[in-house]
Design goal:
Shape: elongated
Order of helices and strands: EHEHEEEEEEEEEEEEEE
Mean pLDDT: 87
Strand content: 25-35%
Radius of gyration: 21 Å
Length: about 240
C-alpha cells in the first residue's frame, strides 16, 4: 500500500471475510505519512487467489484521523508583513460562514485581485486548485465549487485553506514544503463570493472523516476578537 499524497492517510480493508479480518487485525488500520508505503503480510494459509481478490485497490479506503491542535501555535497573518487589510467577514459571518461547521471560524480579508497570499505557518501543500477562470464567481452557493484555493497540512495534523485565488494563481506546487510568511499564491475573484477577498480557514479532521473549522490565534490577536470592519496588519 502506498500513500500518494503529501498528507497522512489512514488505511484499512473492507471485507466480509471474518478469517481475513482476524488475520489483519494486528496490522490495520495503519496511518501512513506523506508518500509512505506499507507491506501487508498475509498468513500462509490465506495466500490464495481468492483471498487476494478481496485485497484489490478498490477494497482500500482512507480517511483523516481525528486531530487535536497544538494550542501553543500562533499563526502569521496570511498576507505580507507591512501590509494591513480589513476584515470583511469574521466568525459566524451571515453571508457564508454560518452554513456549516467547516466555515464557521473562517475569516475573510479584503485582499484585491493580484495581492499576495502568504502561508500562516510552516506546512506542506496538500491541496491545489487554480484552473477556474477569474470571471467565474457570484454571490450564490452554486459557485462554491469554482473557487481556486490552496490547502496546507501542518505538523499537528491541522489544515489551513486559502480560497478565491486567481486563475493560475498558485506560487507553489503539490508536495512543496513552505514556511510561515512565504508567498504561496495570488488573490483573485473566483467561486462563491460577491467581492474579491481571501477566505482563510483553519480546520481539523473529525472522527467522521470530515473537516471542521476551529478558532485561530494570530501573533497579534485572537481570531475571536476580530470583527467585520476591523483593520489588522503586522510588521
Amino acid at each position: 500500500m502506498k500513500n500518494p499524497l503529501a498528507g497522512p492517510l489512514v488505511f484499512t480493508v473492507r471485507t466480509d471475510n471474518d478469517t481475513l479480518k482476524a488475520a489483519l487485525a494486528d496490522q490495520l488500520p495503519v496511518v501512513l505519512g506523506p508518500y509512505e508505503t506499507f507491506k501487508l503480510v498475509l498468513p500462509p494459509e490465506l495466500e490464495s487467489p481468492a483471498i487476494r481478490s478481496e485485497l484489490e485497490p478498490y477494497s482500500f479506503w482512507s480517511r483523516m484521523q481525528p486531530a487535536v491542535p497544538d494550542t501553543s501555535v500562533r499563526y502569521v497573518l496570511p498576507f505580507p508583513r507591512g501590509k494591513t487589510h480589513r476584515v470583511i467577514q469574521a466568525y459566524g459571518g451571515k453571508f457564508s460562514h454560518r452554513a456549516s461547521p467547516f466555515a464557521y471560524y473562517a475569516i475573510d480579508f479584503d485582499l484585491a485581485v493580484g495581492d499576495t497570499i502568504c502561508a500562516a505557518r510552516d506546512g506542506v501543500v496538500v491541496g491545489l486548485v487554480e484552473e477556474n477562470r477569474n470571471w467565474v464567481h457570484g454571490p450564490d452557493p452554486k459557485y462554491r465549487e469554482y473557487a481556486n484555493y490552496l490547502r496546507l497540512y501542518h505538523a499537528d495534523e491541522i489544515y489551513t485553506d486559502y480560497v478565491h485565488l486567481k486563475y493560475k494563481g498558485a506560487l507553489v506546487e503539490m508536495g512543496d514544503t513552505v514556511r510561515a510568511g512565504q508567498a504561496i499564491g495570488i488573490s483573485g475573484y473566483t467561486g462563491f463570493t460577491s467581492v474579491p477577498h481571501l477566505h482563510f480557514n483553519v480546520m481539523r479532521p473529525t472522527d467522521q472523516g470530515t473537516l471542521e473549522g476551529i478558532p485561530v490565534r494570530f501573533e497579534q490577536i485572537d481570531g475571536k476578537d476580530l470583527q467585520e470592519g476591523d483593520r489588522v496588519g503586522h510588521d
